Fold each of these.
Amino acid sequence: MHDYPTPGALPVATVSDAMDRFGVADGIRPLWPGATLSGPAFTVWTRPGDNKGLHAAFETIRRGEVLVVNGGGDTSRALIGELVVQKARALRVGGIVLDGAARDVAELAALGVPVFARAVTPAGPWKNGPYRIGEPIAVGGVPAAPGDWVLGDDDGVAVVPRARIDEVVEGARGLIAGEAERRAANQRLVPRG
């Protein structure tokens, strides 16, 4: 099992750079400023606008895992709200990433569980299914399989394949060191004239 970096330890943008700028979930944003997450993916694939699979996921998800949901990119119905996130908080879930919508944004921020989604809508979900748990999915156009590293910050969400975690972490740390050197050089610049 990999040691997943702590939330906020590595910027999403830098991790994406370390993957040749691949792996960023398109259109998935934090629902409140400063939200960060990092952990292994726990995947759910659900019918658009239906959250029955999310409730089922809470029966087996483990502490620190990130609930990653392919909701078909649907923005007409919120897959989660305050009550679902209260459950996630009680179970110490590492965060939630939705290729779909959420609601109750102020309450989610107050609960402190990092939630990333495509949109916000007040319309509630259906609870009929079908759904799949623990299968490879796509989120924001990026593949995500159980155990892949999912990380998020103010810039968005990235997914790192499990087999590449160590390589990508090392590459990101190298990029951060190089950026620090460039920042220091920028501070030494002297205006002309």
Amino acid sequence: MGNAPLDAHLTALLDEFEERLVESAVASSPFVTEAARHIIAAGGKRFRPALVFLSSQFGSGTDHDDLMRAAMVMELTHVASLYHDDVMDVADLRRGAPSANRLWGNSVAILVGDFLFARASTTVAELGVDYVMLQAETFSRLVQGQIAETKGPGEGDDPLAHYIQVIADKTGSLIAASARFGGMVSGATDEVLTALANFGEEIGLVFQLSDDLIDITSTSTGKTPGTDLREGVPTLPVLMLRAEHNPADADLLAMIDGDLSSDEALEAALTALQAHPVMARAKAEVERHAEIARAHLAPLPEGEAKDALLQVCTDLVERSS
């Protein structure tokens, strides 16, 4: 993140965390252990535990084991939700590896997700009632976001506003809780906790919206370009394009809504979309949310940790280019 001592500290915490995460998935049955470690072993950004660790820099001090527990609750909740998401999405791949539902079926994937949620619940109970309440509220938002995504916007609803609310609930809520957990475990003030949570909520939107642009613009992230486009998954640029109701875009929208199963059709749609001015407008929208996130950091004391959070905003915007 640009500061060598802080980077080294965070790297050491994440290295230890990774070992503990693998151990947290051990079950009484070797099969359950294998299935529960499946997504963990595939890797990941570990963005949420990193945010817990970084946010813990704004308090008066932390108990090391409690800090690890706070990070564990957030990542276990996230990983558990991925098992359920893959069932909902009928996904074949997760992080470049066969999904759990593809390997062992939907029932096993759902139950393994439940197992990891249970492990998160056990861990959060060790932290105290305030943590349990926040975890429960966050889980409620995750579920409601998934239901809203599955159901889709209702008649008369703005599809773009509906989408933003879905990702606020599905992505923003857990990232907000991660930032707040880090502050809580370090004894941060209420003002700091509110600032961290507000930042986390907004940076969660930036995180997902930048992914939306990457689906169309980038070939260097390990994600096959146009995956969401081909599957008809709503993303920011396409939703903005539809919202503008410009007759000149009719051919492009027909292409997007058409059969994209062939590589040639997908490439044609991607090329046309990449060249469209809506991409610049979508990028500006990501930058706008990043600015809101930065503004939420104003109450935090100046220093290396705040600079690192500001850099997170910049990095997420730049990765969408």
Amino acid sequence: MKTTNNMSGLHRILMVLCSLALVAVIFLPIWRIELDAAQYPEGLELQIYSYKLAGQVEIINGLNHYIGMKTLHVEDFVEFTVLPYIIGFFALAFLAVGIANKRKWVYILFVAFLIFGIVAMVDFYIWEYNYGHNLSPDAPIKVPGMSYQPPLIGYKQLLNFGAYSIPDIGGWIFIACGLILAFAAIQEWRKTKTTKLA
């Protein structure tokens, strides 16, 4: 049986849909950090977009000042300059793969998308580590041996605050696109093996 390098019609449609979804991710909150404490019964929220911070940023900055953490400002992060373009690049890449209809490009895109996801999470961890550990010696409140690094994902107790770090709607869409891409890549690989055996 003659093998073909073309993708299935379903996978091509999924690539195009993921492309559109990634365009939306640029404008949606990708990650959120929620802070709960008795003095803030409604909670505090920091939302991270591809290009800005939102939520109760000023209140959180005020609290950070007391424990010696740096205040959060968009201009201090190069990520907010480049991230919209990186996501836009992947949106175009998904579209190009769907249009090109070549199986090998699905594999290449999957590897690139996976690497970007890993690099992004490592960068986010380093960002949280630096902000939680590099404290000002002139802070009004000092707790020996205490650091204030939020969790990469999940829950962590920081003094009297409970910190939750979870994906927001844009992050869940990004993860879903990655899972769909992984599904398409695996299915295309299986189809190749089945065709060769036949």
Amino acid sequence: MWSGVDIAVPVPSDRLPGISMAGFRQRVPAPVDIAMVAHPSVTLLIDLSGDDGLVYDTQGRSGHGSVVIGMAPGELRVTGLVGECLQIRLQPGVAAAVLGSSAGVSGSVESLAAVWGRDAGRIEERLRTARSWDERFAMAADVVRRRIGDGLQVDPEAAHIWRRTVASGGRVRVDGLADEVGWSRKRLWARFRAQLGVTPKRAAQLVRFDHAAHLLAAGLPPADVAAESGYVDQPHLHRDVKAFTGLTPTAVAAAPWLAIDDVAWPDSWRAGRPVRSGAPSSGER
């Protein structure tokens, strides 16, 4: 499905810490139907297609247009007639500042208008009328930068624990992390959840699932993926995949959203992400 899609990414020097962006343009606007796959970041999906754009459906609730997707939204499908779309991925500590709170960071799916109010429409219109993807990336970076400056600040300890969780592929012990930052387990659990929207255990599960999902997409058998990702066995992997996506490991392996990650997110902060061959060519950069 990506053969008719141009993908644009910012140049490395323009990227902000904890933030990734990619632009998507269908050469000929066409209907899409994609099962979104959970990953360890909050997604701002900004619809630049006009009135007949994105429609999203999660747990029987539907919405239209630009949307904020939490880290683990469950079963979520994006459909509609899409021409252009800007996707912004925010690490959870950054997301808490950009969104104004940790609410929605974990699992909710909300319209961008519900989160940013009237600013959402103004930002969409500016992005829609920009002359190039580079101009759009610059606009979006400015919006995000200003919101980070005015938003919530995450404890350095919580940020350190998140980085350690990601670097380990989700294979960390909560007690050990608490010792690293000099917090009690109770304080770690409370502060991490309050500021990042998930418990340390849930964060580790999501990072581990993300690592496994990309190994599945790379073509590894589920049994090998389970062993390499730190699951007890293949049924354990199957249960986590089902819990995060509503899909089987086989369906996740074929998920179209994963098929473009090597192009859309070339400098992903994921630990141990496999590199696949045969990725689609990128568009404007």
